Amino acid sequence: MTNSNNNNDFKCVLDDSIVNPETFGNLTDLGLTFFAPLCGKNRGAVVFEEGATYGCATFPPNYASLASVDTPFPIKDANAIQLQYDNGNLTSSDVCQLLDLYIQSVYTSSHDTVTDPTACDVGGLTKLTCDRTNLAAKKDPIRAATLAGVLVPAPWATGGKQELSQEEREAFYQPADFQEMLELGLTAVQIPVYTSVFLAKGKKQGKGKKHHHRDLLEDLIQYAQDAELGVILVLVDDTNDDDDDDATIKAVKKAAGFSDDQDIQALVLPKAIGSSPDDLIEAARSQAKHLSLFVSVTETDLPTLAYNEDKHVYASLDVTHTTTVAQVASSTSPEDRSKQFFHEAVACSVRSLVDYVECTANMPVFIGTGFDLAIDDCINADNDQLFKDYGQCGRLEERMTSEWWKVHRQSFAVRQLSQYETGMGWSFAAWKLFNSDGLLDTPASLLSLKDVSAAGLMPSFTDTEAAIPLACLNPPLPDFGLGDDTVSPSLAPPPACDGGWWDFDEEECAYWEPPTPCPTNVVYVNDTSACENLPHLGMLNPMASASNGYQPYHTGAVGMSSLVVGVVLGGLVMTMFQRRGRHHGYFDVPNAVNV
Fold first, then answer.
1. Triad 16, 22, 28: Cα angle to 5°
2. Distance CA 134, CA 122 (A)
């Protein structure tokens, strides 16, 4: 790999595969979706043309023409886009072009696009374009599950056991498991394995134990390939304290040769002390010229990644999201729910990392670690070195039967999928847990793809009509305040009926029809809705007529009082809903509704 990455041809644009004239009508809030994140970048300053600085509050007078939109109506600020669209003066295609110009201009106005992997992040709705010489046409994404806890200890996946016995390892995964993965729609499995398994000697494993691991590894590979699943081997370096300083390099060479012989889909190189990615790639290439190699990286590694010229080298990105205080801390039910909302929203930002690596390092990206539905670190609650108690694990039982949690976990799952599949694909944290009952009753169960799929939290991987790519089109629902007790939305105002009212039963406008005037000598009787002959002509007796249902003065009085009340209420309504006067210098916030 070389250090020749160049961002001169980078452009941040609206992803028209997600936001386009056909999908634009499904956007629920243009301001919140686009202008809220964009207007906060660069202190709000945007340069469209040299010699002037603009922002959301002020667009250049020729903004529409800069976006190649032909309209006589002024687009003076961000709010005007929504306003003119609502008034029918802009088409959805026009709005997409106006948004695209603003997105591009914000990106080119930013000074840190080379070192900031999130510079092109607008909630997963934009893409970073560049000359990606190493990237072939997009193929179907890799959809994998990790066999956690089998060959490398993972106590959270094995019921707290630090390490399984050889008998337990052998019983953990059977051929039927791989068939279930295939039926769910998976295409591969990811198997973590120690580097020492590939060495003649290994301090941690011992010869006999190591050979048992090697035999089991070959069995697992055979099970997967019999089910027509690809295999990704993940090397975990355990040779750092070996007497041989080159132990890791030797292990990588042997693992690469083994992978080539076994027709392995890809080999994930370890993060090893004293060995650079270039050293490890060179070691693997000495044994397997065309084997797909994954370089393990985290978000903090991305700005320093070297430019890659090997078309069979890719990035395996760790997107673990349960490590910082902001990601895991909560101590009440509302805080738990707001944290869930936070994770749903942040999930739609991973797309920017994928694009950044593809452009700056010329490497396609696979999500190798961090895909799960957990929003806390409660799987480590028994580990004093890894866990700090903020109160985040005290209410897990509340979520088991909650419809609110089910809906938002589904949202979290599909949002992650929509981002990860913009790259090469993903591997879920685990396929299953050791001796699990299949219920979502432990923190670890949210890291088991088998369990969360059985609970209905994952979308179908076999339904080609599943709208996974559009999952981030709108923000998550902000209903975390009350959770399951959220009040149902009130009815929207009925349609206006000129001179009438809306009949909710008939679902149409209704109008008052006055009765047919009664002939001379006949009076209209209210309680029978019929005309009735009067006993004689002449002046009516109001009191007597009232007893017959005829009230000549009362009707007029009610009409006048109703008129007065109507005028007063009408004035109040108009005062409340008409646009109020504004002092000079104020402007509409994006997506403000003007009536």
1. 90
2. 25
* pLDDT over 90 at 545, yes or no: no
Contact 313, 266 (CB under 8 A): no
Residue 303 tokens read as 């700005």
- How far apart CA 12 and CA 120 sit, in angstroms, is 6
DSSP 303-371: GGPPBP--TTEEEEEE---SSSHHHH---SHHHHHHHHHHHHHHHTTHHHHHHHHHHHT---EEEEEEE
197-211: average pLDDT: 62
pLDDT of res. 516: 66
Task: List the one residue out of 69, 78, 14 whose CA is nearest residue 40.
Answer: 78
DSSP 8-class letter at 173: -
Is residue 185 within 8 Å of 460, Cβ to Cβ?
Answer: yes
Residue with tokens 């993903």: 426
What is the rounded CA–CA span in Å between residue 96 and residue 361?
30
Q: Tokens standing for 114?
A: 């080379």
**C-alpha distances in Å from residue 436, one per residue of 189, 319, 384, 510, 569:** 20, 25, 24, 61, 64
- For 555, phi then psi, to 5°, come to -60, -45
Nearest-angstrom CA–CA distance, 511 and 500: 4
- C-alpha distances out from residue 20 to 26, 95, 99, 591, Å: 10, 9, 11, 18
Average pLDDT across the chain, whole number: 83
- How much is the pLDDT for 112? 83
Q: Which of 420, 406, 483 is nearest to 452 (CA)?
A: 406
Q: What is the Cα–Cα distance from 146 to 377, expressed in whole angstroms? A: 19
Count of CB atoms situated within 10 Å of the CB of 574: 10
* Contact call for residues 447 and 379 (beta carbons, < 8 A): yes
Cβ atoms of 415 and 193 within 8 Å: the answer is no
Half-sphere exposure of 413 (CA within 13 A, CB side): 23
**Is pLDDT larger for residue 261 or for residue 580?**
261
pLDDT band, residue 246 (cuts 50/70/90): confident
Span 87-130, pLDDT tens digits: 999 999 999 999 999 999 999 998 888 899 999 999 999 999 98
Let me know: does 10 contact 128? Beta carbons within 8 Å: yes
pLDDT band at 289 (very low <50, low <70, confident <90, very high): very high
β strands within 237-278, DSSP E = 266-269
Position 143: which residue type?
R
Cα–Cα distance measured from residue 229 to residue 185, given in angstroms and rounded to the nearest whole number: 10
